[in-house]
Design brief:
Elements (H helix, E strand, L loop, with lengths): L1 E11 L2 E6 L10 E2 L2 E2 L7 H13 L2 E14 L4 E13 L9 E5 L14 H10 L1
Parallel strand pairs: 1-6
Antiparallel strand pairs: 1-2, 1-4, 2-3, 2-7, 5-6
Length: about 130
């Protein structure tokens, strides 16, 4: 079974928002892009807006699909779809994550990301 997961590529000037997973979750303390799992019947874009509201207290405008991949972890297979997004309201807050940072594309390699996020990073680097 494949689990659907959505992520947001949120940009501000030349930086991108990244989030560090909490210590008590799978893939603890790895970095990722904001997002989560759609609830039954929920569209990917709606799920992204909800997850970012719940986890970061921000309102998003979700744009075009940016990248997608399927990644098989030992415990779960995910189909990750990333969307371009911008913050319509609010400043990201640490409600769920261990840390959040705004980083440049060149700085992304300094962080240990969840493997499923690598194709997003590679596409961001290729855009430069």
């Amino acid at each position: 079974m494949v689990t659907e997961v959505v992520a947001a590529v949120i940009r501000r000037q030349d930086k991108i928002l990244i989030c560090r997973r909490p210590a008590n979750k799978k893939r603890a303390l790895l970095w990722e892009f904001a997002g989560g799992k759609p609830e039954p019947g929920e569209s990917p874009r709606t799920a992204l807006v909800r997850e970012c509201r719940e986890e970061l207290d921000i309102e998003l405008v979700v744009g075009e699909k940016f990248a997608e991949c399927v990644y098989e972890y030992p415990d779960i297979t995910v189909h990750l779809t990333a969307f371009e997004a911008e913050i319509k309201r609010g400043e990201p807050k640490l409600l769920e994550h261990a840390d959040i940072r705004w980083v440049t594309v060149d700085e992304l390699d300094n962080y240990e990301f969840c493997p499923a996020d690598r194709p997003i990073i590679e596409k961001l680097k290729a855009e430069k």
